[in-house]
Amino acid sequence: MLLHIVVFLFTFCGMEFMAWFSHKYIMHGFLWNLHADHHKKDHDSWFERNDAFFIFYAVVSVGFFLLWQNNILEIGLAIGLGIFAYGLAYFMVHDIFIHQRFKLFRNANNRYAKAVRRAHKMHHKHIGKEDGECFGMLIVPLKYFKN
Predict the structure, then answer these.
(1) In angstroms, rounded to a whole number, what is the distance separating the alpha carbons of residues 109 and 63?
(2) Residues 60, 83: contact at Cβ < 8 Å?
(3) Average pLDDT estimate for 123-134
(4) pLDDT of residue 17
(5) Secondary structure tally for the chain: helices H, strands E
(6) If 12 and its partner were Cys, which of 82, 94, 117, 136 is the partner (CB 3.0–4.6 Å)?
(7) 73 CB burial (10 A radius; 0-12, 13-18, 19+)
């Protein structure tokens, strides 16, 4: 049981690196065409092409659930849940708290919430794929914790 908890926590934390890496090198790289509409709205839909990245990570998470369910990988459940939990946290912070796709968490004004907003605002000041900054989500550089 302890192994599964450690694997879950390691997976959740590792997903911040995966989010940073895929955001910087994939979304702002060769798959910019899917991510561009997130930086510059060129549509009237609630959905964005950028949402395809959520689907990718959901498929990976489900894949680990299936590996566990079919007795192929004992820690598959812990990995799948870690990916799922990070995806849920990312959705809550990025899509709900920052971009207000649902009108929730509007009054969160603690130091961390303000830092997350500042960092993401700096990321979105660049509408092109070059010269970006702050590609992670939950770990925010210290300079954004100013008062």
Answers:
(1) 37
(2) yes
(3) 79
(4) 96
(5) 5, 0
(6) 82
(7) middle
